[in-house]
């Protein structure tokens, strides 16, 4: 159900070949090289200067292209108007939280213990408190790659994009491992 749903969502946006490719890329964590760490940190410095706008743009893209991802947010799950969504304080707060968490990961690319502890907290909160299907982390990762590539074409070159794909694969795989550790099952989710 998980991966079928994911594929279905992505078919709205992408060609099947690209879906398979991205799904595969996000499915296995590959260690970053030193050069890739620098590429991520340099490009993130630019992105983080526009933290609020980029965070909101990412979430708007997620919620407009994949409306089922809104189901978890009590305050805007029924809102369809993009401008109204943009004004939602719950959305803006979550955008801020995501950007902060990514910032901590980027600042600690060479500290795997710190990265694991951040991702453990995020995974536990989403599995146990918010009951979010982990498929949405992959969907969000695809959206992040897309928005960064479009908004920062000079900084996010294909090589930089591929370094980011590796980092997001680590994020998705670590969160999946936390979900497994806490015994989350698709049946327990309300995927409405
Ligand atoms: C990189 C991915 C993400 C990060 C770093 C992140 C981060 C966070 C953090 C730090 C919180 C507060 C945690 C807490 O309740 O203690 C939070 C809350 C939440 N997140 Fe995420 N999140 C991510 C992706 C998602 C996705 C994909 C969804 C669902 C589609 C989601 C749904 C929620 C919901 C429903 C809440 C509670 C919101 C509220 O109470 O206002 N998150 N997130």
Automatic annotation (TrEMBL):
Q: Identify which top EC class this enzyme belongs to.
A: oxidoreductase
Domain Globin: residue ranges: 31-180
Q: Which reaction equations make up its catalytic activity?
A: Fe(III)-heme b-[protein] + nitric oxide + H2O = Fe(II)-heme b-[protein] + nitrite + 2 H(+); Fe(II)-heme b-[protein] + nitric oxide + O2 = Fe(III)-heme b-[protein] + nitrate; H2O2 + AH2 = A + 2 H2O; 2 superoxide + 2 H(+) = H2O2 + O2
One MF annotation (Gene Ontology) recorded for this entry: iron ion binding
Tell whether Iron is among the UniProt keywords: yes
Q: Does the keyword Ubl conjugation apply?
A: no
Pfam families tied to this protein: Globin (PF00042)
Instruction: Give the signal sequence positions.
Output: none
Q: Recite the UniProt keywords alphabetically.
A: Heme, Iron, Metal-binding, Oxygen transport, Transport
Q: Which domain of life is it from?
A: Eukaryota
**E.C. code:** 1.15.1.1
Q: Which PANTHER family did the record assign?
A: CYTOGLOBIN (PTHR46783), CYTOGLOBIN-1-RELATED (PTHR46783:SF1)
User: Which family would the database say this protein is a member of?
Assistant: Belongs to the globin family.
Q: What is this protein called?
A: superoxide dismutase
Q: Which organism is it from?
A: Nothobranchius furzeri (Turquoise killifish)
**Taxonomically, what lineage is the organism?**
Eukaryota, Metazoa, Chordata, Craniata, Vertebrata
Instruction: Name the gene for this chain.
Output: CYGB
